[in-house]
Amino acid sequence: MMENKAPLLEVEHLKMTFTSGKGKKKVVVNAIDDNSFNVYEGETFGLVGESGCGKTTTGRSIVRLYHPTGGTMRFDGQDISGPMTRELRHFLSDNIAMVFQDPVDSLNPRMTVMEIVEEGLKYRGMKNAAERRELVYDMLDKVGLTREHASRYPHEFSGGQRQRIGIARALVVKPKLIIADEPVSALDVSIQAQIINLLNELKEELGLTIIFIAHDLSVVKYFSTRVAVMYRGKIVEMAPSKDLYRNPVHPYTISLLSSVPQPDPTYERSRKSISYDIVADHIEMPDEERKMHEIWPEHFVYCNSKELERYQQKQRP
Known about the structure:
Blueprint: E1 7-20, E2 27-40, E3 44-48, H1 55-62, E4 70-75, E5 78-79, H2 86-95, E6 96-99, H3 113-123, H4 129-142, H5 159-171, E7 177-181, H6 189-206, E8 209-214, H7 217-223, E9 226-231, E10 234-240, H8 241-246, H9 251-258, H10 265-270, E11 291-296, E12 299-303, H11 305-312
Parallel strand pairs: 3-8, 3-9, 6-7, 7-8
Antiparallel strand pairs: 1-2, 1-4, 4-5, 9-10, 10-12, 11-12
């Protein structure tokens, strides 16, 4: 069980607030609203939810592309949520890498593949150009490209090949944790499976830990060890993948799963999506704030005590 292991990444009460405008036009958005979770070595942790729920902001906060407005984060026991010092920047670049959603915008069009992939090695202080080249060639081979591709520019590749370049760039520095931010959503369906299979193979070969951010629940189901469901900046349910899909508890999770198509024409003809009503689907308790409760072993749901009683009445298959 995961809880018996020491977590690789610990996130506690993470908050990220964005502010725009001034005076009466000032708007404050809680993109991440007091979330806590652990990621364990060797697992794939899925983070799912609709667009704008805070999934990408969470990933970017962990890798410190954004500076969180609250909470703490520890990686391998070291605090990574403090001021961005030179030492912390190097620690993060050595241990955490990100694969971005759009393989077009995330690659510099003026740089060759060699320059793109070796950039992280240069940042780490590897001065020997011949060693850098060999590491780049080796990583290109691992992601299904060739050394001949190293001299080309991003516009010469297809979307799937560009994403392979992005994966090579992330992995060439041998990080322990990969944050994959919707890495297949911008790709054709025929290519998505290839990239998912590639990440799976690299995970096993290189001993990676992955945070997999996506809105496609069918992809997350077969790729993730555990899944956290986000709604409006808040994690509302978190459980092992099979348990979550078999026994969803939170009304929002149930609504999300009801919209997932199944490869069964008979089922599809009768399938009905369940709407989520944030008012009608909950029991308000003015004197009690909602928090995460462990309803079954390793299965957590965000609720108050009355809602917990209602959820616990559900028989777990």
